[in-house]
TrEMBL record:
Keyword hit for Lipid metabolism: no
Protein name, entry field: Zinc metalloprotease
Active-site positions on this chain: 61
Main location: membrane
Membrane-related topology note: Multi-pass membrane protein
Length: 375
């Protein structure tokens, strides 16, 4: 998610990220407007049209997020693509044990929420435009054009509502298709089948675009990237749920003493690859401290002792806990290190840095193993 997207803020407490493929949209709009108007294009209007589409996509995803909260799904992040979005949820264990019939009902309701928001906005925009008394030629082709932004606002919402009903995962129609597959397959297999169908649909649209409408090519590219993004998220979730901390924890690590001075601690940190350190007194762990915290304390207060600036409130985990459990503990306290203990004895550490590195390798390894099995 992080390698192909950039943060743009938070919406209702949810991280919002912009997928890098979104920057294809303003270039695509500029090129199509330039070609359609025989070399005349208006850069500011083209950017405004891209902004309208982005706002419509964001509204669509808000509809999904509000509906998801009613089912106990907690949105973690939303990634905005050129013509759709992908919302990542933290699903409670009680939800994971639901029957296929209940999951089917939930997916249908979630799928309808986004298009309904866009249809509502399209109707409101059309009503407001009609109320102004000006003729914006709502039914004149091309419906989506930078030369008529009010008309484009109406049709951008209509197009997004229709687009998301295509049975291509992760579009809303594709989510219903996956839910249908999940009645007879496990969720992982159902997702892979839905992604395969989506990839086929994307290829057809990409190659059909040059012979009919180039917007079809853009839709195909977006569906392809969105499907790959969802498949990647599925692999990572599998790693989170099934890999134990003992498989990825660091067992060869440096520790600090509360009696160490900050200058001594910084000297140890210089000769270590760790960014975070457990603070140990005898056989007891009494705190954690980061390299950055050591530097900040030295700059602000000069040399002192680790005990005075270490964080004394921290989470610990057992070696059999899953990576998803570790992630929840890290995010709950906005921490970057979790000590792993056994019989109240420190046996390893898991840092956010090594967790992300291990997850990436494990996800790639599982994807390769799955591809070999399927071939």
């Amino acid at each position: 998610m992080r390698s192909w997207s950039m943060p743009v803020g938070r919406l209702f407490g949810v991280d919002v990220r912009l997928h890098l493929t979104f920057f294809l949209l303003p270039m695509f709009i500029y090129w199509t407007e330039y070609s359609a108007n025989k070399g005349n294009a208006n850069g500011s209007r083209d950017l405004a049209l891209a902004g309208i589409i982005l706002a419509c996509v964001a509204a669509h995803e808000c509809g999904h997020m509000f509906a998801a909260r009613r089912f106990g799904l907690i949105p973690k992040a939303v990634i905005l693509l050129p013509l759709t979005g992908v919302t990542l949820y933290d699903e409670p264990r009680s939800e994971k044990s639901q029957t296929p019939a209940l999951l089917w009902q939930r997916e249908i309701r979630l799928a309808l929420a986004g298009p309904l928001v866009n249809l509502t906005l399209a109707c409101l925009a059309a009503a407001v435009i009609s109320g102004t008394g000006r003729d914006y030629e709502l039914w004149k082709w091309p419906f989506l054009s930078a030369r008529n932004l009010p008309r484009s606002l109406v049709w951008a919402n209509l197009y997004l509502a229709i687009l998301n009903l295509i049975p291509a995962y992760p579009l809303d129609g594709g989510r219903v298709l996956r839910a249908m597959f999940s009645r007879t397959l496990d969720l992982s297999a159902a997702t892979r089948r839905a992604v395969s169908i989506s990839t086929a649909i994307a290829m057809v649209l990409i190659f059909a675009g040059p012979f009919s409408d180039l917007w079809l090519t853009m839709v195909g590219v977006v569906i392809f990237f969105a499907a790959q993004l969802e498949e990647r998220a599925l692999v990572f979730q599998s790693v989170l749920d099934n890999v134990r901390l003992e498989e990825v924890m660091l067992t060869d690590f440096a520790t600090l003493s509360p009696a160490d001075t900050l200058e001594d601690a910084l000297e140890k940190a210089v000769h270590s690859l760790q960014d975070d350190f457990p603070v140990v007194r005898g056989s007891d762990m009494v705190g954690v401290i980061s390299r950055q915290r050591i530097l900040d304390a030295l700059r602000a207060e000069g040399n002192g002792y680790v005990q005075a600036v270490m964080n004394k409130i921290f989470e610990v985990s057992m070696r059999q806990e899953s990576l998803s459990s570790a992630f929840r503990k890290l995010t709950a306290r906005n921490s970057s290190i979790i000590p792993v203990v056994e019989d109240q004895r420190l046996i390893g550490i898991v840092t956010l840095q090594n967790l992300m590195h291990s997850m990436a390798l494990l996800a790639e390894s599982r994807k390769l193993q799955r591809d070999e099995t399927e071939s």
